[in-house]
Design goal:
globular, 49% strand, mainly beta, two-stranded parallel sheet, 24-stranded antiparallel beta barrel
Length: 672
């Protein structure tokens, strides 16, 4: 399941915000990444989304419902309230006027102001039209992949060393050309990568991505050439990129908002389309058409592929030889009709590889196999009546295997909201490009219902309750027989005060797994209980301290509980003019079982970083963000993880002697 929240930007553009505003964003979103870490969120992609909004703020007086959904922070009730306010009272005079609209408050208006405008003039001064960014990082320890080796030894064991540099490097350039054209180009080299171009010593970046977009208010509303994301309906047919449905705590966000076609600006080397996409608006109807030719790293032989590699790393001879060996052809069509209270959409995705699928499939994944032309088609709808939204999507693959998802969201009085989501995905439904809500590895072999409630007036705080029951009719990973899963989340959060905020949450999960080493599908229960709590105190206008802790209890079958914990303290100092931030953290963790691993979010040069705490030891970092000139932002981060349960870190080519691992990251961004 992809819990990919679209709000993990917290510190991406800290130098551009006032101190208090940066602090509020950090308070509101600083812990969200921990909810999605286990699901592989593409933080670069999320950051790029908000940087685009920062450079080109959304005009509140011209934005439609689909435009407002791009903010991701807003739920359907807030969007409808804003549109109704605009119909009743006319255009807004400033973003601050949001505070007087039902569903908004002064704090939310301040939070959104960097990404909004009211009229043709942006609230931010001197908005940049172009930006160049350079990013670099490296492990300061000597890694096994870079250890000295003789030429003779390397010829005998060519896979024992990296072929390139110890540094990760990335450069990007993006901006606007006039009012209708925007562009972006990204070049990246992972650690150890090096690709010769013409002669020895002359190289190209290993990964290059880019796109050019044309926008207009005519019939051709959007045209993208290059790399792009696509998302329609509730994600049962086609959805790439991050998904706003991941705002798990907000019941009104259980409905996925279709993103349509958007430029791809991340450094991820998988999960995007490379081709051309267009959107045409004719009356109440919108038509979207996209074609793509995607490349994959794969192990191939005799016209078939046996493995697809998704790491994007090409830093050894064998990995380099597998680069872009497999091709996929993709055709996307979507048509949407908008009525006053109803939106109906049809989506079809057709795709196929240029080689036969020769992968070995297990019992639970055998339905993912296909050869030749394959695809999915579906119909989705959204109907609104006041504060109530009813939505759903019915889809099938080209073999006729069905899948469906439906739900309803709304308000219960003045202080409560609710969301109910039900889904049925047949065992044999196969949708490789889908990203609908699921508790499985993909939307198949699942019957489930999710209930989410939010109350705003519990101890002057927000109380979130979420329960999800899922039934798996067929085998799944590590479960050879039908099974079920229960997930319960309770969260209490108080983030209204400017000077002190706190939160507490607990998550209980119960499922079953096969007992390792037994025959006949004998199963045992798996129970996990996770606690998380923290507080942040603003001691002065420029200095704050925070403490946060997590703990896990896990029990398999009749065994004993295994335990894990993580606790850290953090201090933040900001400059009086908002051009400087210094943040330091030190923490202790102990999670000796993989089941007890803990993810924590950290400030990083990109935005937020998800740190995996596994084993026992200490973690510390120092983060500096400064803007010496109005157009230049510099970020530097040094971090150290020191283990107390081992004398080596990493494995394989990333192995380093000693119990400590040191890393340096830096980023320079020039806006002009």
């Amino acid at each position: 399941m992809r819990y990919i929240v679209g709000i993990a930007l917290a510190l991406t553009i800290v130098g551009e915000r006032a101190d208090g505003q940066e602090r509020e964003i950090d308070i509101l979103f600083g812990n969200i990444l921990e909810l999605i870490s286990e699901e592989g969120a593409d933080i670069d992609d999320i950051t790029a989304h908000y940087e685009e909004l920062f450079r080109n703020p959304l005009d509140l007086n011209r934005a439609g419902a689909d435009d407002l959904q791009r903010l991701i922070i807003l739920n359907d009730f807030q969007i409808e309230s804003l549109l109704a306010y605009r119909r009743d009272y006319g255009p807004l005079f400033s973003v601050n006027e949001l505070a007087y609209i039902d569903g908004f408050d002064e704090r939310l208006a301040r939070l959104l102001s960097p990404f909004l405008s009211a009229g043709n003039v942006s609230l931010k001064s001197g908005g940049a039209k172009r930006e160049f960014k350079f990013r670099a990082k490296r492990i300061l320890n000597e890694l096994a992949g870079f250890a000295p080796i003789t030429r003779e030894e390397l010829l005998k064991k060519p896979e024992s060393r990296y072929i390139g540099s110890e540094w990760y490097t990335m450069g990007s350039f993006e901006g606007d050309v006039g009012s209708n054209i925007s562009f972006n180009v990204t070049a990246e080299n992972d650690v150890g990568e090096l690709v010769p171009l013409i002669a020895e010593g002359v190289y190209l970046p290993d990964f290059v991505s880019g796109s050019l977009q044309y926008n207009s208010r005519g019939k051709l509303t959007k045209l993208i050439v290059g790399d792009y994301h696509a998302g329609f309906g509730q994600g049962l047919v086609f959805k790439s990129g991050f998904s706003s449905i991941a705002m798990q705590s907000d019941p009104l966000r259980l409905k996925m908002n279709p993103s349509g076609f958007t430029r791809f600006k991340s450094t991820s080397e998988q999960g995007f389309m490379r081709g051309i996409a267009a959107s045409v608006n004719i009356g109440k109807s919108v038509f979207n058409l996209g074609v793509a030719l995607n490349s994959f790293d794969a192990k191939t032989s005799d016209g078939s592929f046996s493995t697809i590699y998704e790491t994007g790393e090409h830093n050894t001879p064998s990995k380099l030889s597998n680069k872009d060996r497999l091709r996929e052809y993709v055709f996307i069509f979507n048509s949407t009709i908008n009525f006053s209270k109803l939106r109906v959409s049809f989506t079809n995705a057709t795709f196929g590889f240029n080689m036969k699928d020769g992968r070995n499939y297990s019992e639970y994944s055998k339905y993912r196999h296909y050869n030749g032309i394959f695809g999915n088609a579906g119909v989705d709808f959204v109907w609104q009546a006041g504060s109530t939204r009813v939505f759903g999507e019915l889809a099938a693959d080209y073999r006729g295997n069905p899948a469906a998802i439906t739900g309803v969201t709304g308000t219960l009085g003045q202080y409560s909201t609710y969301g109910l989501l039900a889904r049925y995905y047949s065992k044999s439904f196969n949708a490789p490009h889908a990203s609908a809500y699921t508790r499985n590895s993909g939307p198949n072999n699942e019957i489930g219902v999710k209930l989410s409630l939010l109350h705003h007036k519990i101890l002057n705080s927000k109380l979130f309750l979420t329960y999800d029951f899922t039934r798996f009719p067929g085998p799944r990973y590590q479960a050879s027989r039908p099974s079920s899963q229960h997930d319960l989340r309770v969260e209490l959060k108080n983030d209204k005060s400017e000077y002190c905020t706190w939160d507490f949450s607990t998550v209980h999960r119960r499922r079953v797994y096969d007992i390792s080493g037994t025959k006949g599908g004998l199963q045992q229960p798996f129970n996990s209980l996770r606690f998380k709590g923290g507080a942040k105190i603003q001691l002065t206008d420029r200095f704050s301290i925070a403490i946060k802790g997590q703990s896990t209890l896990v029990k398999r079958g009749g065994g004993n509980f295994t335990k894990g914990f993580s606790i850290f303290q953090e201090g933040t100092l900001t400059g009086s003019n908002g051009n400087f931030t210094l943040r330091g953290r030190v923490g202790r963790f102990a999670a000796n079982s993989w089941d007890n691993r803990i993810y924590t979010s950290e400030s990083d040069i990109t935005s937020l970083y998800s740190m995996l705490n596994y084993g026992a030891g200490w973690r510390a970092y120092l983060f500096i963000s400064t803007r010496p000139f109005p157009s230049l932002t510099v970020k530097v981060k040094y971090s150290c993880t020191s283990y107390t349960d081992r004398d080596k870190t990493g494995e394989g080519l990333t192995l380093a002697e000693g119990p400590s691992r040191h890393e340096l990251k830096m980023q320079f961004a020039i806006r002009f």
